[in-house]
Amino acid sequence: MRDPGRTATWVALALLGGCSGSTEAPSAFGVTITDSAGTLIVDNRVPGSSAQRWVVDTVPFVRLGALGSEEDEEEAVFDRILAVDFTEDGRIAVVDEGSQVVSVFSAQGSLLARWGGRGDGPAEFRRIRAMAQCQGDQVVVLDRSSLARFRLDGRLLVRASTDFVTPQVIPHSITMDCTRILGIRRLGDPQVGDVGPSTFAFFWMDPGTQELDTLGVSTLMDTWTRSLRGEIRPFPIPWGANLYTFHSTPRGVVIGNPRVPELVFREGGDRVTKIVRWSRFGAPVATADRRRYEEARNRWRKDKPRDPEIDFLFPELSEYPYVPDTKPVFDRVLADRLGRVWVRRFPEESLGILDQRLQNDLTGDHGQVWSVLDSSGVWTGDVELAREFDLRGAAEGMVFGVWTDSLGVQSVQAFRMSAVQPPAGG
Hints:
By secondary structure, the protein is mainly β. It is 5% helix and 43% strand. The strands form six sheets. The protein has a six-stranded mixed beta sheet, with no helix packed on it. The longest helix is centred in the last third of the chain and has 15 residues, at 287-301. It is globular.
């Protein structure tokens, strides 16, 4: 089993237009693809400034929520949007975490069906973890202890328990074919007082057969293990790797190591099928970043009571036994139905996972930059998205997700996306 943390170098994402699914790449773009004992290794090198990029429209072609039409305002008001997915014919399924309700809208934004709510009934939920649109007229919802399949009109088809492995393995997300669950188990953290990565195991969970298939073990999150009131807990560190650098794929899971950096693709039986690397390096943690941390900490603690736990949640920088001197290269990974993988560059003004402790994130006025890799692991370009937009998925020629405005009001939005070719001779 190969540990992604031990791979020596990344060679940066290169841009290649229109080569999805290929096994070879033109050398002009500096892409090297080799096969090592059944593992595909893709090394990308950064191309020139004239390389292809992706662009998205500034105006969404789908908008559900606070900015929708007046007649739809009551039907499309969301508390906390957990999941969004699109059907092939343009219908939109939305899970509201606050109400535990699933809503289905037409491509024009009209409410077609709604079901769920908090409870123990056949079509109710206790804690929805994920939702996925299946082929045909169906959607699957992963609850705290079950996987339920519905028609898009809300009719329940089948519901299977996931209690056969919990709480040791936590159900995380649904495979793209809607038959299995990606499960995750925390195996270990640094020793008390130490800073280091936490270790996790990944599994396929099959509710039908109640079988568990190991996908692999990897490190994900940089933590500092401490004892508070007799309880030992890991805490995130600033500018550390976080928990959001993995995603289920059609055949397994892709796990990112943002420090090396690389992406490792795993399938059942603990097999590594592909490793993608690139030469981009993390930005240094500068004096301005350290000042930003202390300013954010002071704002966060301003109106809070004096309590040891408050100080534990947001310590002074001098209290950490170790603070990285470089930022991670990326902080999120997303796989789409076309086999592409999206990697979000670590935002310039982010503190990492500690951003979640603040009312407003620290990405500043800058947009967020995502790199798009095709199904072979070859970089097809960068795309810049607005900082208010939380990318949840992508399909042919579009991206979709959740827009959060300055008042914290959420809406579902989708934007057209297209490739910008380099100029002739560039």
